[in-house]
Amino acid sequence: MARRSVPARREDRVWSPIRRLWDLFDLRSDLDEIFDELMEAPFITRSLWSAGFPAVDVAETENEVVVKAEIPGIDPKNVEVNVTEDTLEIKGEIKDEWEEKDVGYCRKERYCGTFERSITLPVKVKQDEVKASYKDGILTISLPKVEPSKPKARKVEIEVEK
């Protein structure tokens, strides 16, 4: 964007009709540049939009962490769940129902394609005992907590130096 210096005093500026017209053109081009930069901004990209998909609820009980993810209309075969001690990852693909080439859209708002969501868990979980179920568009994942290890006290001998 072009930056112009502003006169220190108002009297220094010549106010002719032509000067006013050029000022309007400059203002218009500056505004066009601002809007062009906004439209190229990274916050409009699809990856950030899909970062919140699927929507999840994370709840913690005494023995487990329960994650519920909304994935309506998705075949559970197209969803992959991976878990580490402290992270849950949900990946999947939403297939386009209209795979025919002769279908023309008047409007298309539903997302089709792959998605991925990584959730940091509030506690460490037992990876081997994780269970997942799918019903009515809700994926429920039960993650049993790792029992906190009790610190063992160890007596340390004190050496006396001579």
TrEMBL record:
Xref: InterPro entries: A-crystallin/Hsp20_dom, CS_dom, HSP20-like_chaperone, Small_HSP
Domain CS residue range list: 51-154
Superkingdom of the organism of origin: Bacteria
Record-annotated SHSP domain positions: 47-161
Pfam families: HSP20
PANTHER family with a match to the protein in the record: HEAT-SHOCK PROTEIN 20 FAMILY MEMBER
Family statement: Belongs to the small heat shock protein (HSP20) family.
Protein name: Hsp20/alpha crystallin family protein
Organism expressing this protein natively: Thermatribacter velox
